[in-house]
Design brief:
The longest helix has 22 residues. The chain has 19 helices and twelve strands.
Length: about 450
């Protein structure tokens, strides 16, 4: 008898939380005390017993509400279990279309928010599974893929006034020219990075100066500072950073959506003496026209946004309106790899550089693959393109990022680099993991 085709047998979810708020790692003007967290999903198959791969994915959150995100992933379980592994890996876009097209769950968006991010986690887990089965890192699976197949993976609904499938196919075909040489350069040199590690708002000036100096010594040519809570503090902190890194290192600033439009313009102009390279998320991520007004008023400071943009449709409008200079995709905010393909294609059509958002829990691990695919097989350049890097929590992944001399080293292990270490899952699952159980016991003891 021929072997029975492998199927998805379980969709397991975990509420993983890390106590980063205690050291103010990740702190910014809008999010002063984040506990970096992941709603983590594992697709199990009946090939697992024979050593076959599982699919891993997650949504990044910052603490409270991570259980809500887990519940959203759980709501998709019935639509995933029982599916053929071969079919899923041959066409992840079919699952993407089924999940985004579920009429009752779609009502909760549509295509935005907690439900949409849950779909992204599951879809990303399928891509992880597909890349593992192919024996390739995801960036290489995508870069080696037939352009027609990649177009089939892309959802063009609501986009064709800005990007047609025919235009996307031409971009991808053109991107194959020189891909072999770019792959070799990527494997040799890596992909440019910048670091936010010095710039968290809760850090004092001494720590800011020490970490900024370390960043330059480590080969980074761009750092980023959080701003937006107090203008006098921001002026002082920018002055400290510029005095440490010198004139040749770019300093980006990030307001994390803190300002109204007029306030953003006034604040950025007040920081202009420190030559900020870009202002990130100056206002609501949904305010397309507000971003356009800010961009016009603060030039030559660039406007960057995208980590909280809900879907490809809002990205389309930001590009059509000339509202941003730097597009920042996020691997876990939209509907997974499939929707990020659409966004990368839009950026290529409009000639806007992509500088992905990372940090958090595992975002560096994921988004490096998308940036590397874009370089090798779509945009063909790393000019004015960098991937964010934050030196937090990588030790909890089996294939953590490696950054050398300010560059991401290209992953070579098969998959999407999304697998968390079993020990970390056991320790930081909330509330019953060993860390959180011991923490609760300590707090009870202090309360007595």
């Amino acid at each position: 008898m021929p072997p029975t085709p492998a199927r998805v047998t379980a969709v397991d979810t975990y509420d993983i939380r890390f106590p980063t708020s205690r050291e103010l790692d990740g702190s910014d003007a809008m999010n002063p005390d984040p506990d970096y967290s992941a709603a983590y999903v594992v697709l199990r198959t009946d090939a697992d017993a024979d050593g076959g791969p599982e699919g891993h994915g997650f949504v990044f959150t910052i603490g409270r509400g991570n259980d809500v995100q887990v519940a959203a992933i759980d709501a998709l379980r019935a639509q995933v279990t029982g599916r053929s592994v071969d079919a899923l890996c041959a066409d992840p876009g079919a699952l993407y279309r089924d999940l985004t097209g579920d009429s009752q769950l779609r009502w909760l968006g549509p295509e935005k928010g907690v439900m949409h991010m849950a779909i992204g986690a599951v879809v990303n887990a399928v891509w992880d599974l597909a890349a593992q089965r192919a024996g390739k890192p995801l960036w290489r699976l995508l870069a080696d893929a037939d352009p027609e197949w990649l177009v089939h993976q892309t959802d063009f609904r609501y986009l064709t006034d800005a990007l047609t499938p025919g235009e996307a196919l031409e971009l991808l075909r053109r991107g194959r020219d020189g891909a072999g040489e770019r792959t070799a350069r990527l494997l040799e040199r890596g992909y440019p990075a910048y670091t936010t590690s010095p710039g968290w708002l809760g850090y004092g000036d001494d720590k800011l100066a020490r970490l900024a100096a370390r960043a330059v010594a480590d080969g980074f040519t761009q750092i980023k500072l959080k701003v937006g809570a107090d203008l006098a503090d921001d002026v002082r902190r920018c002055r400290v950073a510029r005095s440490v890194v010198g004139p040749g290192v770019r300093i980006a600033v990030d307001a994390n959506q803190r300002w109204d439009v007029a306030e953003a313009i006034r604040w950025v102009r007040a920081l202009a003496e420190f030559q900020p390279y870009w202002i990130e998320e100056p206002t609501s991520p949904d305010d397309v026209l507000g971003h356009a007004a800010i961009r016009e008023a603060v030039a030559p400071v660039r406007v960057a946004t995208g980590e909280h943009v809900q879907n490809r449709v809002v990205f389309k409008q930001l590009l059509q309106a000339g509202a941003l200079d730097v597009l920042q995709i996020d691997a876990a905010r939209v509907g997974g790899v499939n929707e990020n393909l659409a966004i990368l294609l839009l950026a290529a059509k409009f000639g806007v550089p992509v500088c992905p958002h990372a940090g958090g829990v595992g975002l560096c691990e994921l988004v490096q693959h998308l940036a590397m695919f874009d370089y090798v097989a779509l945009s063909g350049t790393t000019e004015d393109r960098v991937v964010e890097y934050v030196d937090h929590l990588h030790e909890h992944f089996t294939d953590p990022v490696v950054v050398r001399d300010g560059h991401y080293t290209a992953p070579t292990a098969p998959g999407f680099s999304a697998t968390m270490r079993p020990e970390s899952v056991a320790e930081y699952t909330y509330p019953g993991g060993t860390f959180w159980a011991a923490d609760a016991e300590t707090r009870r003891g202090h309360a007595v």
